[in-house]
Amino acid sequence: MPQLAIDKDFLSRYAKLDKRIQKAVDDALHKFAEVYYAGGHLEKVTDARDPRVRTLRITQGYRGVVIAPDAGDSFLLVTVLPHDEAYAYIRSRRFSVNHALGVLEVRDEGALESFTPALEELAAADSARLFDHISDADLIRLGVDAESLPIVRLLTSEAHLEAMAKMLPGGQYDALVALASGMTPEEAWAEVAKNLVEEVAPDRIDPDDLTAAIRRSPGRAVFVEGPEGLQAMLEAAFDLWRVFLHPQQRRIAYRPSFNGPAMVTGGAGTGKTVAAVHRVAHLASRYESGPPQILLTTFTKTLDAALRSQVELLITDPAQRERVDVRNLDRVAYEVVSNERGAGLAFPDARELEALWEEAGAERAYVDAARRGRGTRLSVDQKRAVWRAVLEATERMSAANQWTFTQVAATAAEILERTGDRRYEHVVVDEAQDLHPAKWRLIRALVGEGPDDLFIAGDPHQRIYDHRVSLASLGINVRGRSRKLTVSYRSTQEILSWAVRVLDSSPATGLDDLEDNLDTYSSPLHGRRPAVRWFADRGAELDGLVEQVREWLDDGVEAGSIGIAARTRKIAEAAGERLKDEAIGCGSLARGPGVRVGTMHAMKGLEFRCVAVVGADEETVPRQSQIAEADEDPAGHARDMQRERNLLFVSCTRARDALHVSYSGEPSPFLPVS
Ligand SMILES: Nc1ncnc2c1ncn2[C@@H]1O[C@H](COP(=O)(O)OP(=O)(O)OP(=O)(O)O)[C@@H](O)[C@H]1O
Question: How many whole angstroms from 503 Cα to the centroid of ligand 1?
Fold first, then answer.
């Protein structure tokens, strides 16, 4: 049965075509799909570098590029280009199967040929070569093939290797970059093995079997299932995450089963949420009917709205979508508790809570105790006073049916444990690093222990609240079932490298109690380095912000793709007011309308093309009132400082293309000094 596969490059180019050409592509593809087994609509190109390449006529001025292998019956739609570019592409590119990884690769042979004389000249002038210390055998073991080897041997600098990023076959280039960065061949192998769709390399690789190679390359090409599959794929062109998963993501999301709780970690933007949503789709595909078996949950209402729309995009079958509940944990907890009580619950606002706290005498007891520093021990008397006051306050709240969300979560967990009411077969949790222990107890109580009970996504480097949880202490054991993603799909390497320096160099402790660092975290995307700008005072800084936002808008960036964050609500509000004064419409970070403005805390989980962080000055970042005194409580101080660093890191890593960081007066000590 003939099969049609689509390359990521094809879909991303399709998404950028104007509507008229897109329509022509749709028609040509549907026609082709009806008859492609006969190869009828494909045209052979006489001077094609790769004899398996054909063109598909879209319009007078556009061509699709297709590989139609002699053996086998798979077709791959590689790209779609204006006529002349398509022919130039075909005259220059050759496709092959990586002999170590078995993945599909393309090399720009024409460009490599033009580049070689310059490399030869440079090599002649320099006796040392970049890979002198690596044997041919090791290079070959890492996938470098006979055609690439002579060119690789000419390289004298990393810069020349980088210049060949788009010419060399992808898997081979990754291996060379790993070696050039100082890794041993074994370490480099571990790095390139991340591109394997199975945990180990295939035993037998047939260099002519493109079908097998396509199947091993889910991040770049995917087979279409039937005419509806083709339609769905074209519709997904604006959300490539629906179709092309990095092999690391696919391995985690579509592993048939985990024998217990599993976890996915990874730096900001590495696609943890995407992996979690695909895991939900995989789990949903197991059920045909019945009440929802899967809960996809997270931290806040705004984030769960984003998750819901991702689930709607990914799971197109309504029956399967019904197997999934997307709700934040506060809502789940509220339903459990209010159901049992047969009545709604009241949540006092901050002012009411403060009054209650004061009436209970807790204020006094807490202030007395707090003077001693948060990490030092309380005297027995102080402990008693605090305890009495807390009891008093909670009793008053309970008498008035008043709750905090943490109390609701704890009570919901108790109810579910008592009644043995396991509501779901599977719970998938996103942004897990910041959940309070009471919420973890609730999660554990929502689902019985067993295979695929929990799937947890989180990044300890993005912990911005004080809830440091050890999953093992809550009876959730992810040992041996934790996987890490390392490739950023969001930010450019320039933004990542800068943002990682905001973090302390010491590793973070993961939910699995193991140390986590960002050593192998990188991005294939490139762009401008972040701009860090000084201003004499806040007024001038906000003028600078207006100028920057105007520049982005003038460059065609949509207002809703610009996010502005500040450490305090006051500075965020001042920024919003200033923009409004200049007739630049703005609204909240999560909902808009217009340019999105808010606090760093509200940036969690969001994403923007351009981000401006304002008020990154010594007085504000870290926020002094949130930091324990170093001499009174050194451990608390270090923890608070780390949390504040994480907060700045989270804000900066929301940016896809551009990052602008500004301060007035003295800079925040967290800003990297370049
Ligand atoms: N396989 C993929 N193909 C294309 N885009 C992807 C892929 N995986 C993730 N992305 C995109 O990368 C961005 C970041 O993904 P995602 O939100 O899943 O990352 P994350 O690890 O959860 O990030 P954070 O921890 O910062 O919240 C999103 O725009 C997402 O659509």
Answer: 21
